[in-house]
Amino acid sequence: MDSITTQNAVVHFNSDVYSALNGYIKDTQPSIIFVLVDSNTHDYCLPKFLERLENGDITVEVMEMPDGEEHKTIDICSGVWGALSEYHADRKSLLINLGGGVVTDLGGFVASTYMRGISYINIPTSLLAMVDASVGGKTGVDLGALKNQVGVINEGEMVGIDTSFLDTLPQKEMVSGFAEMLKHGLIYSQSYWHTLTHLENLDLSDLDRLIHESVVIKNEVVTSDPTEQGLRKILNFGHTLGHAIESYFLEHPEKTALLHGEAIALGMILESYLSTKVCDLNPSELDEINEGILKTFTKVEITKQDQEHIIELLIHDKKNSHGVVKFVLLEAIGKPKIDCVVSNALILEAFEYYNR
């Protein structure tokens, strides 16, 4: 697969990943190479990665953080910053983030802020990180249960997507990443959406091509609006309600926490319903979206009490301004509209639709 040039970096795929990475190390000669992993990627991905890494005489230090969204916190950042300092990292050090979206988001933020910025490279190992989290330069951590409230936009030196790492991924994590691919179709390409919702016509050999297409879509959007002043907001479709739902389930221990993609899938159905009321999305397309998402994602029980608390969390969404909640909605599949204002009554209607 051809590499994809972003605004400030390049996304490499499979066999090109290690030649590009090792070439970068040879050319730049970092003072120390740090590899950030979580407890899963330490066991399942790190050995294979280190076999392919050509570091010469440069010291490699591995830093491990706990796995899971609940550890995407400033406290963990402090631990990583402290480890960098303890091992005498300087401004010529390189941080390689080997993991899913939590590792690439947090590691990118740590690198962007340590000594006011050191170089970093993302090697995503989950489908979610490959098609979304690792590309585009968004870094950050959660503030309590509130998603991605602290962070910066700062692209790394490169992204290396080695799809063989997906062999280590539980099925549930694969499904979670698939939600972001579905989103790319809904906001950008009706034909891509149609392909993803008819996977019975494809086999596993098509997965690399579909991942590549998702990265192309995300990169085209990000390149045209790197700091999210306008068009890049469309990447938040499903995320206004999806993030609020994810946060609500994270902060209530009696609930089973949802993976990011599970919450976003739910959010996309809800926001598609809102689209029929606010943007005249055709009800037949709403049915198509609902059916396409529920082919893959199991419905989640959202009680009336849950709904009220979820709506309260919407005020923390990063697209808001002047206290007004702003949604990305759809006029049609592949045709999004940004900065839509929706009443709470309509949101409750959307939950009623979903529960039916």
UniProtKB/TrEMBL annotation:
Ranges where the 3-dehydroquinate synthase C-terminal domain occurs: 177-320
Cofactors, names only: Co(2+); NAD(+)
Keyword NAD attached: yes
InterPro entries, per database record: Dehydroquinate_synthase (IPR050071), DHQ_synth_AroB (IPR016037), DHQ_synth_fam (IPR030963), DHQS/DOIS_N (IPR030960), DHQS_C (IPR056179)
Keyword Acyltransferase applies: no
Top-level EC class: lyase
Boundaries of every 3-dehydroquinate synthase N-terminal domain copy: 63-175
Origin superkingdom: Bacteria
Pfam families in UniProt: DHQ_synthase, DHQS_C
A GO MF label: 3-dehydroquinate synthase activity
Keyword annotations: Cobalt, Lyase, Metal-binding, NAD, Nucleotide-binding, Zinc
Enzyme Commission code: 4.2.3.4
Role this protein plays: Catalyzes the conversion of 3-deoxy-D-arabino-heptulosonate 7-phosphate (DAHP) to dehydroquinate (DHQ).
Entries under PANTHER family matching the protein: 3-DEHYDROQUINATE SYNTHASE
Protein name stated in the entry: 3-dehydroquinate synthase
Gene behind this protein: aroB
